[in-house]
Structure formats: structure tokens, C-alpha cells
Fold this sequence. Notes:
alpha+beta; Beta-lactamase; 2 domains; 13 helices; 25% strand; globular; disordered N terminus
Amino acid sequence: MKKFLxxxxxVVILAMNTITLAENLPTDSENQKISTEELPNTFTQDExxxxxxxxxxxxxxxxxxxxxxxxxxxxxxxxxxxxxxxASTGRVIYEKNAKAKQEPASMTKMLTGIIALETLTPSxxxxxxxxxxxxxxxxxxxxxxxxxxxxxxxxxxxxxSENGAAVAxxxxxxxxxxxxxxxxxxxxxxxxxxxxxxxxPNGLHNPNHYSTAEDMARIAAYCMRNEDFRKIVAIxxxxxxxxxxxxxxxxxxxxxxxxxxxxGLTGIKTGWTSAAGACLAASAKRDGIELITIIMxxxxxDGRFIEAANLLDYGFEQVKMIEAVNRENSVRKIFVxxxxxxxxxxxxxxxxxxxxxxxxKKELLNVTYKLPKIVDAEGNINKGDEIGExxxxxxxxxxxxxxxxxxxxxxxxxxxxxxxxxxxxxxIDK
Length: 430
């Protein structure tokens, strides 16, 4: 009997303790509170989950990411080579290893594109060969025998960086890629490139295919003077229509992530290969100033856009465009022999504007006119003919040369004035 009573009492005591313990246990919400307070300096997973979804997924736009600056105020970039120039004069505002040889990747297509625009008519049919269809990294779903207008083939190459389109254009223009490479190199030399050699029309890897940031900036500036080129590289999205097969279409979306995002952006071309890294030619225009930047061998795809945006920002902060020479003030009069008139007015075709960088002063600009004292009207002098040149220097360094052109037509013939010029010319020329 005693054992039975002891057992009952023990059970009752255990039950009472269990009830008391249950009453003192924290709720789920209290458990959450305790775990958070125990780690006051730790950002817990639970805290992340409590944030609004739009806040956790929000990203800073590439053009708004600000890079640290060096002691000169220049953005610090990881790209191996880069440059910023003022587009109308080619004046260098910033450079990093700008003369170093690099593979330009698909920035090469700027040169292919401008040659095609200057050679082909927009409606001309361009066919896709087997080589073009089998080109590495093609974007469009096409095959041998497909065809597009020259205009659309150029757009496919520039907007979505279609490698096969570059081959098709090269073959259309010259019959083969090697022959087209000769045209590319000749054109690059005409533009003023001094350290470039092109082998492919699309920039795919080749050890003998190279350029520099400086030369690519020259090519970009030349291309952007062509209005058709400017329109193409500013296209964000567009439908693409085949000639053959009829009714076949596709959608093109520009690979340039700064387009419609960076204020004033006007182009131009992305580029990437494993050998070249991430590349970008970008241009922007604000308040009448257009800048071009070239990024070569950046570390990441997004990095090239961030670095380009920061370099353009830096350029716009540094540059002030001024009127160096007014067209009317450039007019000079020279003598004419053998013509129906004895004098000719020459001058600039337009006002000469010049970018001052940083704290540079307009007072240090100097203008020199290189003109003959007498010109011969033999064969006629036509309005617009180049007669001489104007040289603009800053602080003694030659910066820009502009042609001085004839303002009127002078026919070959006789006049007493020109006869007098002929007589006294030996003394005037001295």
C-alpha cells in the first residue's frame, strides 16, 4: 500500500513540473526575438528574408556605379588600355596604355561597317555563304543561301555583333576575307592609324589581328562623322527582314548596355573574345561636346560599361569647347594671275571650335595661316577648292590643321589686274 501511494505521488509531481515547464517555454515569435538579440552584430538570414523583395533585388545601374579616383581626379580602371578623345578634333583627354597593341575583338566591325556603308548601296542584296553561315558565334539562325539587304546586314553586324554578317559583307565587297583585309588595312592607314593590322572583318581571334586604343578611337571618330553609321549604332531594338527566304524575320537588340541609359550616349560598339577580354567603343554628346572612349581588355563584361561611363563623366567634367577662330575672321585675300579676276578670298568653311582641357586658357592659342601669296587661275579655281591651311597651336604645340578654301570661282582668262599680278609676281613671291 505504501509503495502504491508513493508511485501516485511521484506521478503527480512529475505532471505538475511538466505543466509549469510548458507554461514557461517561449512562443515562436519570442524564439525569433531571442535569436536576433543573441547576435546583435550579425546580419542573419532571417533579417534578409524580412526585407522587401524589391529592396533585396534592386541593383545600381551600370552608368551610376562610381569608381575611385587617383590624385589627378581620374577614375581608376582595370582595363589594360583606354582612351578618351574629343570627337571633332581627336584631342586626347585621358589615356592609359593607349599605344599598346591589343586585340580589338568586335570593335573591328566599326571599320568593316564604314567600308560597307561607303561601298554598297543600302538595297543591294548580300548573300550568306557557307563560310559566313558557319562562322564562330553566329547570332542569327540562318544558313547558306540566305540573303539580306546591305543595310540590314550592316545593322545585324553592328547591333547584335553578328560575326557571319561581317564575313558576308567582306565577301560581297571584295570576294574573299583575305582581300577584304587588305581593304581594311588601307582604310585604317587613310584614317590615320599607325599601329594596327587587321586580318578578319569581325575581330575573332587571330595573333596577327591587333590595334590600339588610340587607333580604335581614330576609327570611331571617323565612323561617327557618317550620318548613316551614327543612326545604326544608336538603334536599341529593331525587326530584321530577310530577302531570302521571303517573310523570314528576327529581332535585333543592341549589345551596348549604356544605350538609352547613359545621358547623351550616341553609340558605338561592344566587343569580346577570350583573348581580347571585354572591349567597348562608346560615344556621348552633351551641350555640343561629343566624346569617344575606348576600353580594351577590361576584366568583366559589365566592367567595361562601368569604366566607360566613368571615363565619359570625367571627360565632360574636364572639357570646355570654345570658338577658336570665327569663319568670318578667317577670311584672307590673295592675288591671282592668269584669271578674269586679280584677287581671291579664302577662309575656313566653318567656325573652328577647340576643346580646352582642365585649366587651359584661350589666350595661349595661336593661329598661323599657310597661304601662297599668288595663285594661278590656269584650269580655273572653283569655289571650295583647297588653297592653303590654318594651323591652330596651344602654348607653342600644333593642335589642329584646317583647310582654307576658295570663297568664289575664278575663271582662267585675262584681266588687267591679273596681268599686273603676273608682271610683279617675281617681286611679290620674294
